[in-house]
């Protein structure tokens, strides 16, 4: 009996030690990068103009920010020859890919939420979006009440779904919620008439409308359902890596370079069609610019 208790204590100690060691190793992203000789950036494929792909190359507002972060990592490690690789992720795969160590950071349209903070970490926020809805301009839909009895789409694995449900409950609306596998799929469902509206972050909606074959056929309408911050998604508890990410983002805010990036991606012609979104900074964005923070919602 005594021997069994002792064995149990030793076994428990070993398990805790191994578990703690694994967490430390998993959180030391700088050591992983130094050992592998490369930085792996997770990006989106159709989150224009934040993070998307043009001619096989990741581009966008967040991609530019993370490329600067990668440069700062090279300086920190004194390894200017570090390779930078890119790996596409979706709303459903972004967190699993980070937890598995397949990407070192995710640079896209990921809301910094308290729920996600239970699994991952975030840098200082680099963008603040406002959730609204895209509809066909000819639909006559202007408000949430106009959605009663209709299907509404959002992208699987995003936070927008909860705002549909919250408003459905609050206004006793009869709404059928359906889901696209990614933003392009969700937009296609709305454009084809399978859904009456696509509820999502306004910047994503603006990008999808702009690159559609008939931009004037769509409109972004309705109230602001939520204001949500985006940050670079990182391994949870990796304080050294987060410190570099925070320094990168804070410096972009402080020096005005973030304003220049905003102008480049939201107020100027962007690839692939040289379309100008003409999307002025929202009140949520201006509030973040005045007081940058890593706080989640």
TrEMBL record:
GO terms for biological process: amino acid transport. Residues 277-297 are annotated as: Disordered. InterPro entries: Bact_solute-bind_prot3, Solute-binding_3/MltF_N. Pfam families: SBP_bac_3. SUPFAM superfamilies: Periplasmic binding protein-like II. GO terms for cellular component: extracellular region; outer membrane-bounded periplasmic space. SMART domains: PBPb (SM00062). Residues 1-26 form the signal peptide. Residues 38-269 form the Solute-binding protein family 3/N-terminal domain. Keywords: Signal, Transport. Belongs to the bacterial solute-binding protein 3 family. This is ABC transporter substrate-binding protein. It comes from Acinetobacter oleivorans.
